[in-house]
Amino acid sequence: MTNEIDVITLFPEMFSPLSESIIKRAVDNDILKIRLTQLRDFAFDKHRQVDDSPFGGGSGMVLKPEPMYRAVRHVLNNSQSPSRRIIITDPSGETFTQAKAKELAEIDWLIFICGHYEGFDARIYDLADELISIGDYVLTGGELPAMVIIDAVARMLPNVLGATDSAETDSFFAGMLSYPQYTRPREFEGKVVPEILLSGNHAEIKKWRQAQSLEITRRRRPDLLGEN
User: Fold this and answer.
1) How far is the C-alpha of 110 from the C-alpha of 104, rounded, in Å?
2) Among residues 67, 90, 143, 155, which one is catalytic?
3) What confidence tens digit (pLDDT) does each residue in 111-153 have?
4) CB 20 within 8 Å of CB 154
5) Distance from C-alpha of 48 to C-alpha of 154, rounded to nearest angstrom
6) 118 catalytic per annotation
7) Residue-wise over 172-189: b if at least 16 C-beta within 10 A, else e?
8) Annotation marks residue 91 as catalytic
9) What does the pLDDT average to over 166-171?
């Protein structure tokens, strides 16, 4: 099965990071298909205008509903995937988490609507199945949040990562931060790799890692454990 992602954006060139690293490999191996749609292609005038000043006054420009509705209806003709979800990246949405990444990875087709300027005409929100925020801060547009979500979701897809258990060892996958990792050299500037990792006793290594994960989570993010 190939998972599909469509993105409607004013700045498709911003998505060049998706052609690198793990996501590039997923696309090259037909695990993931990513399509970018330029919102201006669905404007009505020769100037390709997709925004206008807000009714009632105020600063900035607001994205118009007509081009966005046309773009979404065009995108919906791209696939016949059995399950799909239309997402607006928006600060008023549910905060993105690893649990949400796993949930979205189960959906065959994700469609992202990226805002810009001072936001959307409110009628555009009717197109979305859900709103997702990546945090309580302001960004220039929805492109960076969409890329963050796409990257996190792609890691959850089968066969995307090199090792089958790589995603399971990521921070937040099991609700805690990841344990510390080491590689060669065994000693560096007086800092030595913990002896347990050199023992070859995989059961004890697993126990050590679990204990380290718990300790780090309790020290750095006690909120993940329900602790204050």
Assistant:
1) 8
2) 155
3) 999 998 778 999 999 999 999 999 999 899 999 999 999 999 9
4) no
5) 33
6) yes
7) bbeebbbbeeeeeeeeee
8) yes
9) 53
**Sign of torsion, CA 189 193 194 195?**
negative
The helix/strand/coil state of 156 is: helix
Determine which one of 118, 121, 151, 215 is catalytic. Answer: 118
Distance between start and end Cα atoms, the chain: 43
Residue 165's pLDDT is 47
Of 66, 151, 170, 215, catalytic: 170
Whether residue 185 has a cis bond before it, omega within 30° of 0: yes
Catalytic residue among 4, 91, 143, 145: 91
How confident is the model over 202-211, as pLDDT tens digits?
999 999 999 9
Contacts of 200 (CB under 8 A, 6+ apart): none
**Which distant-in-sequence residues (6+ apart) come within 8 Å of 56 by Cβ?**
none
This prediction has a pTM of 0.86
Contact (Cβ atoms closer than 8 angstroms) between residue 89 and residue 95: no
Q: Using a CB cutoff of 8 Å and minimum separation of 24, what contacts does 99-104 make?
A: 100/132, 101/149, 101/152, 101/153, 101/155, 101/156, 102/156, 104/149, 104/153, 104/156
